[in-house]
Design a protein that fits this description.
Structural class: alpha+beta
Radius of gyration: 28 Å
Number of helices: 12
CATH architecture of the domain at 25-170: Alpha-Beta Complex
Oligomer: single chain
Number of strands: 29
Shape: elongated
Length: about 450
Protein backbone atom coordinates (compact mmCIF):
# COMPACT_ATOMS: atom_id res chain seq x y z
CA UNK A 1 0.00 0.00 0.00
CA UNK A 2 1.28 3.48 -0.91
CA UNK A 3 0.21 6.82 0.59
CA UNK A 4 1.70 10.19 1.56
CA UNK A 5 3.36 10.97 4.87
CA UNK A 6 1.24 12.89 7.38
CA UNK A 7 3.68 15.77 7.90
CA UNK A 8 6.39 17.37 5.77
CA UNK A 9 9.04 20.02 6.38
CA UNK A 10 11.17 22.30 4.24
CA UNK A 11 14.46 20.53 3.44
CA UNK A 12 16.11 23.96 3.09
CA UNK A 13 17.56 22.68 -0.19
CA UNK A 14 15.86 24.52 -3.05
CA UNK A 15 16.05 21.66 -5.56
CA UNK A 16 14.96 19.03 -3.01
CA UNK A 17 11.86 20.77 -1.67
CA UNK A 18 9.84 19.29 1.17
CA UNK A 19 10.65 15.97 2.86
CA UNK A 20 8.86 13.93 5.54
CA UNK A 21 9.10 15.70 8.89
CA UNK A 22 11.00 12.90 10.66
CA UNK A 23 13.64 12.51 7.92
CA UNK A 24 17.06 14.08 8.26
CA UNK A 25 18.80 15.94 5.46
CA UNK A 26 22.53 15.38 5.23
CA UNK A 27 25.25 15.87 2.65
CA UNK A 28 27.20 13.09 0.98
CA UNK A 29 30.33 14.15 2.84
CA UNK A 30 28.49 13.57 6.14
CA UNK A 31 27.58 9.95 5.36
CA UNK A 32 30.60 8.85 3.30
CA UNK A 33 33.42 7.04 5.07
CA UNK A 34 35.63 7.48 2.03
CA UNK A 35 35.41 8.89 -1.49
CA UNK A 36 37.79 8.85 -4.41
CA UNK A 37 38.25 8.62 -8.15
CA UNK A 38 40.80 6.83 -10.25
CA UNK A 39 43.38 7.42 -12.93
CA UNK A 40 44.37 5.79 -16.18
CA UNK A 41 47.51 3.68 -15.65
CA UNK A 42 50.76 4.98 -17.11
CA UNK A 43 50.85 3.93 -20.74
CA UNK A 44 47.09 4.22 -21.18
CA UNK A 45 45.31 1.38 -22.94
CA UNK A 46 48.66 -0.25 -23.75
CA UNK A 47 48.96 -1.14 -20.06
CA UNK A 48 45.73 -3.15 -20.13
CA UNK A 49 46.01 -6.93 -19.80
CA UNK A 50 43.82 -9.80 -21.00
CA UNK A 51 43.53 -11.11 -17.42
CA UNK A 52 44.33 -9.79 -13.96
CA UNK A 53 42.68 -7.20 -11.72
CA UNK A 54 39.38 -5.86 -13.06
CA UNK A 55 39.79 -2.24 -14.21
CA UNK A 56 36.46 -0.45 -14.55
CA UNK A 57 35.73 2.40 -16.94
CA UNK A 58 32.58 4.49 -17.33
CA UNK A 59 31.25 2.17 -20.06
CA UNK A 60 31.05 -0.59 -17.43
CA UNK A 61 28.83 1.36 -15.02
CA UNK A 62 25.06 1.29 -15.53
CA UNK A 63 22.12 2.08 -13.27
CA UNK A 64 21.09 -1.58 -13.31
CA UNK A 65 24.57 -2.85 -12.44
CA UNK A 66 28.04 -3.41 -13.85
CA UNK A 67 28.42 -4.67 -17.42
CA UNK A 68 31.68 -6.55 -17.72
CA UNK A 69 31.51 -7.90 -21.28
CA UNK A 70 34.06 -5.28 -22.43
CA UNK A 71 35.97 -4.87 -19.18
CA UNK A 72 39.73 -4.21 -19.06
CA UNK A 73 42.34 -5.63 -16.70
CA UNK A 74 45.54 -4.41 -15.06
CA UNK A 75 48.32 -6.36 -13.36
CA UNK A 76 48.75 -6.60 -9.57
CA UNK A 77 51.73 -4.23 -9.55
CA UNK A 78 49.74 -1.47 -11.24
CA UNK A 79 46.80 -2.15 -8.93
CA UNK A 80 49.00 -1.68 -5.86
CA UNK A 81 50.38 1.60 -7.20
CA UNK A 82 46.78 2.85 -7.55
CA UNK A 83 45.73 2.27 -3.93
CA UNK A 84 43.56 5.39 -3.73
CA UNK A 85 41.21 4.07 -6.41
CA UNK A 86 40.92 0.47 -5.24
CA UNK A 87 37.25 -0.36 -4.73
CA UNK A 88 35.44 -2.90 -2.58
CA UNK A 89 32.07 -4.67 -2.58
CA UNK A 90 29.20 -2.32 -1.58
CA UNK A 91 31.06 0.78 -2.80
CA UNK A 92 28.75 3.05 -4.81
CA UNK A 93 30.19 3.96 -8.23
CA UNK A 94 29.19 7.16 -10.07
CA UNK A 95 30.20 8.17 -13.59
CA UNK A 96 31.42 11.77 -13.39
CA UNK A 97 32.16 12.71 -17.03
CA UNK A 98 30.78 12.42 -20.54
CA UNK A 99 27.44 11.29 -21.90
CA UNK A 100 27.02 8.72 -19.12
CA UNK A 101 27.48 11.23 -16.29
CA UNK A 102 25.34 10.31 -13.28
CA UNK A 103 25.06 6.61 -14.06
CA UNK A 104 25.58 4.70 -10.84
CA UNK A 105 25.57 1.23 -9.30
CA UNK A 106 26.77 -0.76 -6.29
CA UNK A 107 29.90 -2.93 -6.54
CA UNK A 108 28.66 -6.52 -6.16
CA UNK A 109 30.04 -8.99 -3.61
CA UNK A 110 31.38 -11.11 -6.48
CA UNK A 111 33.89 -8.38 -7.42
CA UNK A 112 36.30 -8.74 -4.54
CA UNK A 113 39.18 -6.77 -6.07
CA UNK A 114 39.00 -4.02 -8.68
CA UNK A 115 40.17 -0.54 -9.66
CA UNK A 116 38.66 2.42 -11.52
CA UNK A 117 39.74 5.13 -13.92
CA UNK A 118 39.35 8.90 -13.57
CA UNK A 119 35.87 8.95 -15.10
CA UNK A 120 34.40 7.12 -12.10
CA UNK A 121 34.00 8.23 -8.49
CA UNK A 122 33.43 5.80 -5.63
CA UNK A 123 31.55 6.45 -2.41
CA UNK A 124 32.03 4.17 0.61
CA UNK A 125 29.42 4.32 3.39
CA UNK A 126 28.09 2.18 6.22
CA UNK A 127 26.63 -1.09 4.97
CA UNK A 128 23.12 -0.28 6.18
CA UNK A 129 23.07 3.09 4.35
CA UNK A 130 24.29 1.85 0.95
CA UNK A 131 21.01 0.51 -0.57
CA UNK A 132 19.04 3.71 0.11
CA UNK A 133 21.86 6.09 -0.89
CA UNK A 134 22.39 4.17 -4.12
CA UNK A 135 18.69 4.37 -5.00
CA UNK A 136 18.67 8.09 -4.23
CA UNK A 137 21.71 8.78 -6.42
CA UNK A 138 19.96 6.98 -9.29
CA UNK A 139 16.79 9.06 -8.89
CA UNK A 140 15.61 11.62 -11.44
CA UNK A 141 16.10 14.32 -8.80
CA UNK A 142 19.86 13.78 -8.63
CA UNK A 143 20.19 13.36 -12.40
CA UNK A 144 18.32 16.65 -12.90
CA UNK A 145 20.55 18.32 -10.32
CA UNK A 146 23.67 17.07 -12.10
CA UNK A 147 22.31 18.54 -15.35
CA UNK A 148 21.68 21.81 -13.51
CA UNK A 149 25.29 21.88 -12.31
CA UNK A 150 26.50 21.14 -15.84
CA UNK A 151 24.43 23.91 -17.41
CA UNK A 152 26.09 26.46 -15.15
CA UNK A 153 29.62 25.22 -15.71
CA UNK A 154 32.19 25.87 -18.42
CA UNK A 155 33.44 22.28 -18.20
CA UNK A 156 31.86 18.88 -18.65
CA UNK A 157 32.14 16.78 -15.54
CA UNK A 158 31.20 16.35 -11.92
CA UNK A 159 33.90 17.18 -9.38
CA UNK A 160 34.58 15.47 -6.07
CA UNK A 161 33.69 18.69 -4.28
CA UNK A 162 30.32 18.97 -6.01
CA UNK A 163 29.48 15.36 -5.24
CA UNK A 164 30.43 15.76 -1.58
CA UNK A 165 27.89 18.59 -1.31
CA UNK A 166 24.94 16.54 -2.63
CA UNK A 167 22.06 16.72 -0.14
CA UNK A 168 20.50 13.39 0.85
CA UNK A 169 17.16 12.98 2.65
CA UNK A 170 17.62 10.12 5.12
CA UNK A 171 14.77 8.22 6.78
CA UNK A 172 15.46 6.14 9.90
CA UNK A 173 17.47 2.98 9.12
CA UNK A 174 14.50 0.62 9.44
CA UNK A 175 12.49 2.78 7.05
CA UNK A 176 15.42 2.91 4.62
CA UNK A 177 15.45 -0.90 4.60
CA UNK A 178 11.70 -1.01 4.06
CA UNK A 179 12.00 1.41 1.13
CA UNK A 180 14.96 -0.44 -0.40
CA UNK A 181 13.20 -3.82 -0.11
CA UNK A 182 10.02 -2.42 -1.64
CA UNK A 183 11.85 -0.84 -4.57
CA UNK A 184 13.94 -3.98 -5.11
CA UNK A 185 10.74 -6.00 -5.43
CA UNK A 186 8.97 -3.48 -7.67
CA UNK A 187 11.92 -2.66 -9.93
CA UNK A 188 12.80 -6.35 -10.33
CA UNK A 189 9.25 -7.00 -11.53
CA UNK A 190 9.47 -4.07 -13.96
CA UNK A 191 12.90 -5.22 -15.19
CA UNK A 192 11.53 -8.71 -15.87
CA UNK A 193 8.74 -7.23 -17.98
CA UNK A 194 11.26 -5.11 -19.87
CA UNK A 195 13.48 -8.15 -20.44
CA UNK A 196 10.55 -10.15 -21.85
CA UNK A 197 9.62 -7.28 -24.16
CA UNK A 198 13.23 -6.97 -25.36
CA UNK A 199 13.20 -10.71 -26.12
CA UNK A 200 10.04 -10.16 -28.16
CA UNK A 201 11.77 -7.42 -30.13
CA UNK A 202 14.69 -9.74 -30.86
CA UNK A 203 12.24 -12.43 -32.01
CA UNK A 204 10.48 -10.06 -34.42
CA UNK A 205 13.79 -8.68 -35.70
CA UNK A 206 14.96 -12.22 -36.47
CA UNK A 207 11.61 -12.99 -38.12
CA UNK A 208 11.99 -9.87 -40.28
CA UNK A 209 15.52 -10.83 -41.27
CA UNK A 210 14.66 -14.44 -42.16
CA UNK A 211 11.59 -13.29 -44.13
CA UNK A 212 13.72 -10.99 -46.28
CA UNK A 213 16.54 -13.53 -46.68
CA UNK A 214 14.16 -16.26 -47.83
CA UNK A 215 12.01 -14.15 -50.14
CA UNK A 216 14.73 -12.31 -52.09
CA UNK A 217 16.38 -15.56 -53.23
CA UNK A 218 13.40 -17.97 -53.42
CA UNK A 219 10.58 -15.68 -54.54
CA UNK A 220 6.92 -15.90 -53.55
CA UNK A 221 5.96 -19.14 -55.31
CA UNK A 222 6.57 -21.93 -52.79
CA UNK A 223 6.12 -24.59 -55.50
CA UNK A 224 8.61 -23.20 -58.00
CA UNK A 225 11.45 -25.46 -59.16
CA UNK A 226 14.85 -24.44 -57.83
CA UNK A 227 18.38 -24.64 -59.22
CA UNK A 228 21.85 -24.05 -57.84
CA UNK A 229 22.84 -20.43 -58.41
CA UNK A 230 26.51 -21.38 -58.53
CA UNK A 231 27.22 -18.80 -55.82
CA UNK A 232 27.66 -20.22 -52.32
CA UNK A 233 26.22 -17.22 -50.47
CA UNK A 234 23.18 -17.02 -52.76
CA UNK A 235 22.33 -20.72 -52.73
CA UNK A 236 19.39 -22.12 -54.66
CA UNK A 237 17.18 -19.83 -56.74
CA UNK A 238 14.08 -20.35 -58.90
CA UNK A 239 14.84 -22.15 -62.15
CA UNK A 240 13.85 -19.19 -64.34
CA UNK A 241 16.07 -16.68 -62.48
CA UNK A 242 19.58 -15.64 -63.54
CA UNK A 243 22.65 -14.37 -61.69
CA UNK A 244 24.28 -11.14 -62.88
CA UNK A 245 26.72 -8.54 -61.60
CA UNK A 246 25.54 -5.19 -60.30
CA UNK A 247 27.54 -3.44 -63.01
CA UNK A 248 25.51 -5.31 -65.65
CA UNK A 249 22.26 -3.86 -64.32
CA UNK A 250 23.04 -0.57 -62.56
CA UNK A 251 24.90 2.68 -62.87
CA UNK A 252 26.94 3.34 -59.75
CA UNK A 253 28.55 6.47 -58.39
CA UNK A 254 30.35 7.55 -55.25
CA UNK A 255 30.51 11.06 -53.87
CA UNK A 256 32.82 13.30 -51.90
CA UNK A 257 33.02 15.92 -49.17
CA UNK A 258 33.25 19.59 -50.17
CA UNK A 259 36.05 21.46 -48.43
CA UNK A 260 35.03 22.52 -44.94
CA UNK A 261 37.52 25.40 -45.24
CA UNK A 262 35.26 27.08 -47.78
CA UNK A 263 32.25 28.35 -45.81
CA UNK A 264 30.36 29.25 -49.00
CA UNK A 265 30.21 25.54 -49.85
CA UNK A 266 28.04 24.88 -46.78
CA UNK A 267 25.46 27.67 -47.06
CA UNK A 268 23.23 26.35 -49.84
CA UNK A 269 20.01 24.32 -50.04
CA UNK A 270 21.26 21.05 -51.55
CA UNK A 271 21.10 18.12 -49.09
CA UNK A 272 24.37 16.29 -48.36
CA UNK A 273 24.64 13.05 -46.36
CA UNK A 274 27.53 10.94 -44.98
CA UNK A 275 27.51 7.15 -44.69
CA UNK A 276 26.24 7.35 -41.11
CA UNK A 277 22.83 8.26 -42.52
CA UNK A 278 22.46 4.76 -43.99
CA UNK A 279 20.87 2.50 -41.37
CA UNK A 280 19.24 -0.39 -43.29
CA UNK A 281 15.95 1.38 -43.87
CA UNK A 282 14.46 4.17 -45.92
CA UNK A 283 16.66 7.27 -46.14
CA UNK A 284 14.30 10.21 -45.67
CA UNK A 285 14.98 13.94 -45.82
CA UNK A 286 14.41 14.33 -42.07
CA UNK A 287 17.88 12.88 -41.41
CA UNK A 288 19.71 15.60 -43.36
CA UNK A 289 21.98 17.72 -41.15
CA UNK A 290 24.09 19.44 -43.82
CA UNK A 291 23.28 21.45 -46.94
CA UNK A 292 25.69 22.58 -49.63
CA UNK A 293 25.68 25.17 -52.41
CA UNK A 294 25.61 24.80 -56.21
CA UNK A 295 29.21 25.98 -56.15
CA UNK A 296 30.15 23.09 -53.84
CA UNK A 297 28.43 20.58 -56.11
CA UNK A 298 30.25 21.94 -59.16
CA UNK A 299 33.67 22.40 -57.55
CA UNK A 300 34.02 19.26 -55.43
CA UNK A 301 33.91 15.50 -55.86
CA UNK A 302 30.48 15.13 -54.26
CA UNK A 303 27.81 13.64 -56.52
CA UNK A 304 24.04 13.87 -56.71
CA UNK A 305 22.15 10.65 -55.99
CA UNK A 306 18.59 10.59 -57.27
CA UNK A 307 15.41 9.63 -55.48
CA UNK A 308 14.80 5.88 -55.71
CA UNK A 309 18.50 4.98 -55.65
CA UNK A 310 19.86 2.15 -53.52
CA UNK A 311 22.69 3.34 -51.24
CA UNK A 312 25.49 1.24 -49.73
CA UNK A 313 27.85 2.46 -47.00
CA UNK A 314 31.48 1.66 -47.83
CA UNK A 315 33.52 2.25 -44.67
CA UNK A 316 33.56 2.36 -40.90
CA UNK A 317 30.95 1.11 -38.47
CA UNK A 318 28.17 1.38 -41.06
CA UNK A 319 30.06 -0.52 -43.79
CA UNK A 320 27.62 -2.73 -45.77
CA UNK A 321 24.57 -0.86 -44.47
CA UNK A 322 21.93 -0.39 -47.15
CA UNK A 323 19.35 2.34 -47.64
CA UNK A 324 16.58 3.24 -50.09
CA UNK A 325 16.75 6.92 -50.98
CA UNK A 326 13.46 8.85 -50.89
CA UNK A 327 14.77 12.25 -52.06
CA UNK A 328 17.52 13.76 -54.22
CA UNK A 329 20.73 14.38 -52.29
CA UNK A 330 24.46 14.68 -52.64
CA UNK A 331 26.56 11.97 -50.97
CA UNK A 332 30.05 11.64 -49.54
CA UNK A 333 32.90 9.38 -50.61
CA UNK A 334 31.85 6.58 -48.24
CA UNK A 335 28.62 5.90 -50.11
CA UNK A 336 27.89 4.15 -53.39
CA UNK A 337 24.62 4.99 -55.10
CA UNK A 338 23.02 2.44 -57.43
CA UNK A 339 20.28 3.31 -59.89
CA UNK A 340 18.95 2.00 -63.18
CA UNK A 341 16.81 3.53 -65.87
CA UNK A 342 16.24 0.12 -67.44
CA UNK A 343 12.59 -0.91 -67.64
CA UNK A 344 13.43 -4.42 -66.41
CA UNK A 345 14.81 -3.23 -63.04
CA UNK A 346 12.77 -2.42 -59.92
CA UNK A 347 15.25 -0.77 -57.55
CA UNK A 348 13.40 -1.51 -54.33
CA UNK A 349 13.76 -5.29 -54.78
CA UNK A 350 17.54 -4.85 -54.90
CA UNK A 351 17.41 -2.75 -51.74
CA UNK A 352 15.95 -5.76 -49.93
CA UNK A 353 18.30 -8.16 -51.72
CA UNK A 354 21.45 -6.28 -50.70
CA UNK A 355 20.19 -5.81 -47.15
CA UNK A 356 19.91 -9.61 -46.89
CA UNK A 357 23.52 -10.02 -48.09
CA UNK A 358 25.21 -7.61 -45.68
CA UNK A 359 27.41 -10.29 -44.12
CA UNK A 360 28.71 -11.34 -47.54
CA UNK A 361 29.37 -7.70 -48.42
CA UNK A 362 31.25 -7.13 -45.14
CA UNK A 363 33.40 -10.16 -45.95
CA UNK A 364 34.90 -8.06 -48.78
CA UNK A 365 36.25 -5.47 -46.33
CA UNK A 366 39.95 -4.71 -46.55
CA UNK A 367 42.25 -3.06 -44.01
CA UNK A 368 43.97 0.29 -44.12
CA UNK A 369 43.43 3.62 -42.44
CA UNK A 370 39.71 2.87 -42.41
CA UNK A 371 38.44 -0.61 -43.12
CA UNK A 372 35.87 -0.90 -45.85
CA UNK A 373 34.90 -1.85 -49.37
CA UNK A 374 35.06 0.17 -52.58
CA UNK A 375 32.88 0.92 -55.56
CA UNK A 376 34.63 -1.80 -57.55
CA UNK A 377 33.64 -4.39 -54.94
CA UNK A 378 30.03 -3.27 -55.20
CA UNK A 379 29.98 -3.33 -58.99
CA UNK A 380 31.14 -6.95 -59.03
CA UNK A 381 28.62 -8.21 -56.47
CA UNK A 382 26.40 -11.00 -57.80
CA UNK A 383 22.64 -10.43 -57.70
CA UNK A 384 19.55 -12.30 -58.84
CA UNK A 385 17.85 -11.14 -62.03
CA UNK A 386 14.37 -11.92 -63.35
CA UNK A 387 11.32 -10.05 -64.63
CA UNK A 388 10.57 -6.57 -63.31
CA UNK A 389 7.01 -7.64 -62.58
CA UNK A 390 8.20 -10.36 -60.19
CA UNK A 391 10.79 -7.99 -58.66
CA UNK A 392 7.99 -5.54 -57.85
CA UNK A 393 5.73 -8.26 -56.46
CA UNK A 394 8.49 -9.34 -54.06
CA UNK A 395 9.30 -5.76 -53.03
CA UNK A 396 5.63 -4.90 -52.46
CA UNK A 397 5.15 -8.09 -50.42
CA UNK A 398 8.19 -7.29 -48.27
CA UNK A 399 7.07 -3.68 -47.85
CA UNK A 400 3.76 -4.88 -46.42
CA UNK A 401 5.19 -7.63 -44.22
CA UNK A 402 8.12 -5.63 -42.84
CA UNK A 403 5.88 -2.64 -42.15
CA UNK A 404 3.61 -4.89 -40.07
CA UNK A 405 6.59 -6.27 -38.15
CA UNK A 406 8.10 -2.79 -37.69
CA UNK A 407 4.80 -1.51 -36.28
CA UNK A 408 4.76 -4.36 -33.76
CA UNK A 409 8.38 -3.62 -32.79
CA UNK A 410 7.65 0.11 -32.41
CA UNK A 411 4.66 -0.68 -30.17
CA UNK A 412 6.83 -2.90 -27.96
CA UNK A 413 9.52 -0.19 -27.80
CA UNK A 414 6.88 2.29 -26.62
CA UNK A 415 5.86 -0.16 -23.89
CA UNK A 416 9.50 -0.43 -22.79
CA UNK A 417 9.85 3.37 -22.67
CA UNK A 418 6.69 3.58 -20.52
CA UNK A 419 7.99 0.92 -18.12
CA UNK A 420 11.39 2.62 -17.82
CA UNK A 421 9.71 5.95 -17.04
CA UNK A 422 7.50 4.22 -14.47
CA UNK A 423 10.62 2.72 -12.88
CA UNK A 424 12.35 6.10 -12.67
CA UNK A 425 9.28 7.88 -11.30
CA UNK A 426 8.67 5.18 -8.70
CA UNK A 427 12.25 5.34 -7.40
CA UNK A 428 12.24 9.14 -7.39
CA UNK A 429 8.94 9.51 -5.54
CA UNK A 430 9.75 6.89 -2.90
CA UNK A 431 13.32 7.95 -2.03
CA UNK A 432 12.35 11.63 -1.78
CA UNK A 433 9.35 10.90 0.44
CA UNK A 434 6.65 12.06 -1.97
CA UNK A 435 4.91 8.75 -1.34
CA UNK A 436 5.07 6.51 1.69
CA UNK A 437 5.75 2.80 1.60
CA UNK A 438 3.99 0.76 4.25
CA UNK A 439 4.04 -2.94 4.97
Amino acid sequence: MIKQYSKYKDSEVHWLGKVPEHWKVKRVKDVAKKMGSGVTPKGGSESYKTTGITFLRSQNVYDNGLKLDNVSYIDSETHQKMQNSQIKPLDILINITGASIGRSCIVPDSLEEANINQHILYLRASKELVPFISLYIKSNLIKDYINLIQSGSSREGLSMGETRQFSIPLPPIQEQKQIADYLEKKTTAIDKKIDLLEQKIEHYQNLRKSLINETVTKGLDKNVKLKDSGIEWIGQIPEHWEVKRIKDLFKTLSGGTPSTKNSSFWTGAIPWIPSGAIQNNNVNKEIVKHYISEEALNRSSTKLASKGSVLIALTGATCSNVGFLNFDTTINQSIVSMTSSEKNIYNRYYYYYLMSKRESIRALMTGGAQEGINQGNVRHLKVCFFSREEQQQIADYLDTKTQTIDTIIDTIKDQIITLKELRKTLINDVVTGKIKVTA
